[in-house]
C-alpha cells in the first residue's frame, strides 16, 4: 500500500494519546495525510514508555511529533498557527481541555471554516455524562458488552483486548473521511463528536437495535455463534479446539458427512422433519439442541483440529482451529493471507498487519472464476 495515498496533501493536527485517537490518525497517516502529533512537554504520550513503546510505534509511525506546553503563550500560538493551516484536528483529551487554551471548535472554526474537528471522548461531548472519565474496560461494562460474553449466571467477562478503543478509532477515521468528502462539495468543515460508548454500540449493532426497539437484552450463550445454531460453537478435539460454523441445515449436513455421522440428519431425536427435508433458507434449529451438541462433540473429539479444519473447508463448511494470535499470523503469512508492514520510529521497529485490506490496481487473478 506504499503507493496508495489518497489523503496526500491533507494536514492533520493530532491532540490524541494512548489508543483510540492515535489509531484514527494512524490510519489517516498511512493513507498519505501529513499528521502532526502534539505531545506535552512532560514526557509526551504515556505509550512511549515501558511495555507500551512498541504500541506507541505501532500507532504513531509516520507522524511528526512536536512537544508543546499549551500554558505557554508561545507554544499556544504555535498550536493555533498549525490549526489555522490544518484540514483536520483530532482531540482525545478530556472534554473542555482544548477549549481552555482557545483551541476549541468555535475559535478555530472562525480562523479556519474548512476545519474538520473530531472530538473523541468516553461518553460524548454533550449530556450529563460528558465529564466522566472512561477506559476501554469501563465502557465495556457500562454498555452491556461484559454481559454478552460468558454464560448466564457467570460473572461479567471483559473482551480480552481493547476492542472499544480500536472500534472508536475506526469510527473516528470513517467519520473524518466522510466529513472531508463533504467538504469537497461545501468547502466547510464539520464538528464530529465521537464517543467510546457510541462506538461500543456500533460493535454490538444488531443487539443495540434489539435493545432500543424491543427493550431486549440478548441471552449469554458462551461461545455459540450469532445464529444460535447448536452446531455453531467451540468443540474439543484430540489436540485442541475448533470453532465449527454449521449455521444452516445444508452446512450441518455437509459437516455430518465429514464426521461420518450422516445418520444424525434423519434421526428424529434431533430433527423432525429430517434435516434434508428442504424449505426456505433459515438458521439451523434442532428438536433437542443439547443432545445434538453432545453427539457432535463426541464425533469431533476423534479428530485433530487442523485435519477437521481442512476437511470442513473442502465441503464449504466454516471451521477453524483455535489458535493464539502468534499461531494465526504465522499461518496467515505462510498462506499468503497476510502481508506485514514494517513501521519504525528511531531505534524501535514493529511489524504491523497493515490497515486490514489490500489495494491492487485490479483483481490480482484477473477476475477469473474459481
From TrEMBL:
SUPFAM superfamilies, A to Z: CoA-transferase family III (CaiB/BaiF)
Molecular function as annotated in GO: CoA-transferase activity
Pfam families per the UniProt record, alphabetical: CoA_transf_3
Keywords, ordered alphabetically: Transferase
Gene3D superfamilies per the UniProt record, alphabetical: Crotonobetainyl-coa:carnitine coa-transferase, domain 1, formyl-coa transferase, domain 3
InterPro entries: CoA-transferase_III_domain (IPR050483), CoA-Trfase_fam_III (IPR003673), CoA-Trfase_III_dom3_sf (IPR044855), CoA-Trfase_III_dom_1_sf (IPR023606)
Entry protein name: Acyl-CoA transferase
Provenance organism: Burkholderia lata (strain ATCC 17760 / DSM 23089 / LMG 22485 / NCIMB 9086 / R18194 / 383)
